[in-house]
Design a protein that fits this description.
By secondary structure, the protein is mainly α. It folds into two domains: 1-46, Homeodomain-like (Arc Repressor Mutant, subunit A); 50-186, Tetracycline Repressor, domain 2. Helices cover 67% and strands 0% of the residues. It has helices at 2-22, 29-36, 40-46, 50-72, 79-96, 98-106, 108-112, 122-132, 145-164, 176-186. Helix 4 (50-72) crosses helix 5 and helix 6 (98-106) crosses helix 9 (145-164). The N and C termini lie far apart (50 Å). The model has no long low-confidence stretch (mean pLDDT 86).
Length: 198
């Protein structure tokens, strides 16, 4: 029973790598199968085609990132501590799992439309985190969590996208504190010194 799982994982890894290098349009099923060391028939046993495989990788990546954030970000304590934990977790994953995180970031606009918003994902995690902390935000009434969540999410994602394109120096994790401090300032939250941060 381990063999089909191993093949499926090899296909996932190979497709993710090729999608990152060449984009979805520039990658064919034959290339994915060759890179994974499997036949095209093996690939078609699990997915109808490239688009379904791309969606599956996107969905799995989003769910995995949500689970990691859920596990590592404290639900109570200083709000900026939770924000820093979320940013460090995401940036750490970006540095460690480059192919997957680059794929998620650089293909999000193409694949997001086909993504069920009810699914667990890092975007919903961030919105939920700010909703839970809304009473602590020190901002004008017009700037509620529904507006601030996408603004601050953009503050976190844009450096990652820049790093994916090579215009921001890696590792990304070294920028986590500065980005978290900026996010906390926008949210009107006091930056309470956190162990291991300046």
């Amino acid at each position: 029973m381990a063999r089909p799982i191993r093949f499926k994982n090899a296909i996932f890894e190979s497709a993710t790598k090729l999608f990152c290098e060449r984009g979805l349009a520039g990658t064919g099923i034959r290339e994915i199968a060759r890179e994974a060391g499997v036949s095209e028939a093996a690939l078609y046993r699990h997915w109808k085609g490239k688009k379904e495989l791309a969606k599956d990788i996107f969905l799995r990546g989003m769910e995995n990132m949500h689970a990691i954030l859920q596990d590592r970000v404290p639900k109570d304590g200083p709000a900026c501590e939770s924000i820093l934990a979320a940013v460090r977790t995401f940036y750490g994953a970006f540095d460690e799992y480059k192919d997957v995180t680059h794929y998620l970031l650089l293909n999000q606009h193409d694949l997001w439309r086909s993504f069920d918003r009810a699914e667990k994902n890092p975007v919903s995690f961030w919105f939920d985190l700010l909703r839970a902390r809304e009473s602590e935000l020190q901002v004008s009434a017009e700037l509620n969590g529904e507006i601030l969540a996408p603004i601050t999410l953009g503050m976190i994602l844009r450096p990652a996208i820049a790093a994916a394109y090579g215009s921001l120096e890696a590792p990304l994790e070294k920028h986590a504190v500065a980005v978290s401090q900026a996010v906390c300032r926008v949210l009107g939250l006091p930056w309470i010194p956190i162990a291991g941060t300046p």
